[in-house]
Amino acid sequence: MAAGVPDNIRVLVEAKLAESGLELFDLRFFPAGSRPILRVTIDSAAGVTVGDCEKVSRDLSMLLDVEDFSPGRRYHLEVSSPGIDRPLRTERDFRRVVGRWVVLQMKPVWSGKKTLKGKVLSCGNEMISCEMDGVAVDLPIASIASGKEEIQFK
Question: Which of 22, 32, 80, 117 could be stapled to 17 by a disulfide with Cβ–Cβ 3.0 to 4.6 Å?
């Protein structure tokens, strides 16, 4: 179950997004004041527009009402993209940033360092290869607590 969301709802949301050529990046349902929030984060290789978010919000609102997602309890539905500083968590996320610079927070500490910075060379088999200080290093994705692309300005 994704952060408070029943598996059957997750499957329905993923299917509805696939109809529009979109992917589910994250799905969370959590308390927030008088109304809980259902936060749906969508993604696409081509990027996500405001129009995509609006359409998905309308489509999911109708779908969730039909499925009686939160019986007798009102909630807020938020639909957004992961943004420019999207977290890197999965092999798919790291594949998208091959050739780019990333900052990684390691768990546990790797070679005496908790934070690593490098250029992603490749990704596969739950490993990433990064160039750090001119040396290629292979890291298991499971040992990365969090990662973000480091945006390079020219």
Answer: 22
CA 110 to chain centre: 24
Distance CA 57, CA 40 (A): 9
CA distances from 7 to 29, 66, 75, 112, 122 (A): 12, 16, 18, 39, 32
pTM metric for this prediction:
0.71
Q: Which amino acid does the sequence have at 50?
A: V
Say yes or no: 15 and 62 in one domain: yes
CA distance 11 to 40: 13
Cα–Cα distance for residue pair 70/65, rounded to 1 Å: 8
Residue pointed to by tokens 């329905």 = 12
DSSP assigned state of 54: H
Total domains present in the chain: 2
Residue 73: exposure state from Cβ atoms within 10 A (0-12, 13-18, ≥19):
exposed
Q: Which residues contact 152 (CB under 8 A, 6 or more apart)?
A: 100, 101
Tokens of 126: 């739950």
Give per-residue pLDDT as tens, 38-66: 999 999 878 899 999 999 999 999 999 88
